[in-house]
Amino acid sequence: MAEKVVDIQDLEYWYMQGTPMEVQALKGAHFDVYRGEVVAVLGHTGSGKSTLIQHLNGLLRPHKGHVRVLEYDLTDPNVDVKALRRRVGLVFQFPEAQLFERYVGDDVAFGPRQLGLSREEVRERVRTAMNAVGLDFETYKDRFTFSLSGGEKRRAALAGVLALRPEILVLDEPTAGLDPEGRRLILNLIRRLKEEWELTLILVTHDMDTVAEMADRCFVLADGRTVLSGTPREVFAHPEVLRELALDLPHPTEVTHRLAATGVPVRPDALTLDEAETAIRHVLANGSANT
Ligand SMILES: Nc1ncnc2c1ncn2[C@@H]1O[C@H](COP(=O)(O)OP(=O)(O)OP(=O)(O)O)[C@@H](O)[C@H]1O
Ligand SMILES: [Mg+2]
């Protein structure tokens, strides 16, 4: 059995607690992740996704409930947050807004330089991280940060976190606002990070096709609570719940559900285009659903 690397139970969190502007962003969320998994966090805007994941590297501390990440208990006021942050990398929503060094290479090197590594080790980490995100080290290291395209900036920000060599990588909306090519690059990268870097990946996303293709499990938040969790197939088997939360289904699932609803004897739970194609071909060939 794989090691449980994140265990969050009954988490509650308030912004501006004790002021008239107080907002309770989390009202009893649960979330867990095993080593090596890709786990997606879904939910409508304002449901608490970013608040939840900022607990994973101690940026936010639980007001109520239980948060354990690796061997760190975040309810303990003396927990070694610095050590935790070396092992859990967090890439914010629109991270490109936070690039601040003049040269791309320096920006990616910023984190590892804080770790007290040798110059050679920093350079090696920066080279590996930049190449991994598709920004060739020799070509891009001396480019001005501001001269990069939006998608390249996003990948540079990601390289900066990868250069810290985290065990757990948390990505908040990694494909939001990117064009199809930028999106494809990020998704291929995420796949490689799982396979080649053996990272545990946690991603917040609205992109249900990504969830269907890549996530081992997902958690759906609504108004600060976890309302649904399981494998994508389990979660997307509840289209009515998702619709009520104004969440989409993956496109292939939507199509097979619609066909099934109009009486076509097709298996309705396709997650990927390949699965939808197989299910529909099966009906065409046999006149009934495969099971
Ligand atoms: N810094 C803050 N100060 C006050 N309230 C906040 C702050 N950040 C978030 N909130 C509120 O907390 C709730 C949860 O916000 P959060 O950003 O976690 O949602 P989200 O699911 O990430 O949304 P989105 O999909 O739009 O990114 C919302 O009501 C939001 O307005
Ligand atoms: Mg958010």
CATH topology of the largest domain: Rossmann fold
Structural class, from secondary structure content?
alpha/beta
Radius of gyration: 21 Å
Largest sheet: 6 strands, mixed
Average pLDDT number: 93
Percentage of β-strand residues: 15-25%
Give the CATH H-level superfamily of the largest domain. P-loop containing nucleotide triphosphate hydrolases
The strands making up the biggest β-sheet line up spatially as 6-7-8-3-9-10
Task: Supply the number of structural domains.
Answer: 2
Number of helices: 12
Helical amount: 25-40%
Structure characteristics:
4-stranded antiparallel sheet, 38% helix, binds magnesium ion, 12 helices, 291 residues, alpha/beta, Rossmann fold, 6-stranded mixed sheet
Explain what the structure shows.
The model has no long low-confidence stretch (mean pLDDT 93). It is built from twelve helices and ten strands. With 291 residues, the chain is of the alpha/beta class. Helix 3 (104-113) runs parallel beside helix 6 (150-162). It folds into two domains: 4-248, Rossmann fold; 250-291, no CATH class. Helix content is 38%, strand content 22%. The strands form two sheets. Strands 6-7-8-3-9-10 form a six-stranded mixed beta sheet. The chain has a four-stranded antiparallel beta sheet with strand order 2-1-4-5, with no helix packed on it. The protein has helices spanning 49-53, 81-87, 104-113, 119-132, 137-140, 150-162, 180-196, 208-214, 232-235, 239-244, 251-261, 273-286; strands spanning 4-15, 23-34, 38-43, 64-69, 72-73, 88-91, 168-172, 200-204, 217-222, 225-230. The relative contact order is 0.14. The chain binds adenosine-5'-triphosphate and magnesium ion.
